[in-house]
Design goal:
The chain is an alpha/beta fold. The protein has two domains: 161 residues, 3-Layer(aba) Sandwich (D-Maltodextrin-Binding Protein, domain 2), CATH 3.40.190.150; 97 residues, D-Maltodextrin-Binding Protein, domain 2 (3-Layer(aba) Sandwich), CATH 3.40.190.10. It is 42% helix and 18% strand. It is built from eleven helices and eleven strands. The strands form two sheets. A six-stranded mixed β-sheet has the order 2-1-3-10-4-11.
Length: 323
Amino acid sequence: MPSTTTRRAALTGAAALITAPTILRAQSFPTRPITMIVPWTPGSSSDAALRVMAEAAARHLKGNIVIENKPGLAGVRGAIDLAGRTQPDGYTISQFPLTVYRYPFTSKVSFDPSKDFTYIIQLTGYTFGIVVQGKSPYKTFADLVAYAKANPGKVTYGSPGTHTSLHVGMIQLGEILGVEWTHVPYKGGAETTKALLAGDVTCVADASGWAPQVQNGDFRLLNTWGASRSKPYPDVPTLKELGYDLVSTSPYGLAGPKGMEPQVVAALHDAFKASLSDPAVLRVLGTLGQEVEYLNPQDYAASIPGIMTREKAIAEKLGLKPA
């Protein structure tokens, strides 16, 4: 009859044989292209930043990263896709905007952001701002507010989607100002830019996909939403400077399906962290006014419950309902 020691050794050896292929796969990662979901339209500020980061990260990994745009649902399509995946192998990851943590309190979802994903890295935040056409009569934000107060509901604003940080911010700002304006949701920055160029909306509240149009004079930037003035726009006041208690940069990062191997998470983290010091990436981030807001996997994951508590409170206070 085999001894206890012999049986234990046999079981240990069997376990090693089972786990060895997984460890080897993780150590050789990647062996095929990685798909990175960008839940926004091509040409948006998120798309521009993530594409250049993916190029730099791919060089670090000595592999390929393929961008898959999945716009709509306020940037939550990537999370929905990952929640339904049974292979947490690291070959499909997604950008996670702040909307992912707000969405469970405004819509029916089948995932819990605090439990159902593997957090890889927090990367950067946005420069948000309100823009009007360059030829519009609104020279300052005060001009726009005065018109909105005198004409309730007539000011229309485009955003990248219902319940995005821009939509929520405009609701909050409307309450602070005591004005009523009309929301027109789009699927991302490329669409909001087209809408404002065509005169379909009075103004746009969005991340800095509007930068080229501001630079060439097609758009006028009335304010930004950060704690301090945006480096590319030192002459443009923040909402806080204008006397409104609202600051928003909406930091974002990358996540994968629940249960990813630590070695794979580390490989992806290291590659994208390296991208944040790449000159080409820094040039694009600088143009977009996106400041690095890095968090490692552990700190990123640990931040999620607190973010969700805050977003739940905002959703309840504003009475946000499913779109």
